[in-house]
Amino acid sequence: MSAAPRRPVLKLLPHCGVSGKVKAFGRKGASEVKISRLAALGIAALALASAGTVIWQKAFRREPAGDGVPSSAAPAQGGPWTGALGREAVERALARKLETAPEYAPFIERLKTVFPSDYEAFLASLGQRSADDGDIGSADFVMAEAMRALRLSRGALAAKAGKDALEHVFDLQLAMLQALGAEDPNLCVNFLYGGGSTELLAFSAANRGLVTAQALAAADAISDGQVKKMEREPPTEEDFAFLEKVLRAKGLDKTEIEALLDGRIQSPAAAAERMCRAGQIYLETIAAMPEDSRLRIYSLAIELMARS
Fold this sequence. Notes:
Blueprint: E1 21-23, E2 32-34, H1 46-59, H2 87-100, H3 105-114, H4 116-129, H5 139-154, H6 163-183, H7 185-192, H8 198-206, H9 208-228, H10 237-249, H11 254-261, H12 272-287, H13 291-306
């Protein structure tokens, strides 16, 4: 096995509540590494999902439970629902929401048919958070909740997916950053660092095809990983040394590289346009790395994020 990386890998998105050193899960003798902030964008529009949850809580003045991340768990088999709506009512409300946002229907149907237990957890989550008048939220919030339910339950399986399925997840993350950058560089940076905002949820509403493509890519990677069960070694020190060298060669300065590779936010922070572009360059650079290095980074990033 390669030498233990001394170079810190990026931190995970802040709202996931994980920082510092963690062990690479499931690898005998795996070295400790810091989690990547950007590479951990892997499994399905985390910032958009967070935005939905935060906005919905504020709308109904609900205090976040415990660590601020409400549970998506379904009620026990046969147990009571605690929201304003029961299961059948939630499904009817969901169908009405999908009539206004048909782009999301393919992912919801995939969740229902391929991952039925996660679909039930998703319905339960909507029921628990329904308003007094039975409203389950906007179609975009509903989609964010569906994505989150699958990530929390099965996200780690995507780390074991084959090359094509794994790469497609990150191709779409790059497409998301590019779309956000074209819309608003500040919004791009907000997404980059896991912020939640009404602007991000509005972006989701205006780009439902892209959000659905991300969600379906995540579902595909989870299904692929469940079948193929690919085991990969964690990234090596050489992987990250090479990555840093290429980023420098592409014009990123010390502040930007430290923000990407170490999770350090300098004061003053890099301009939004430059930081948004730096994030895109980062993902483009990983995509162009030798296959073994690239897949090691992708796999570890998804696994750590899903288990956070």
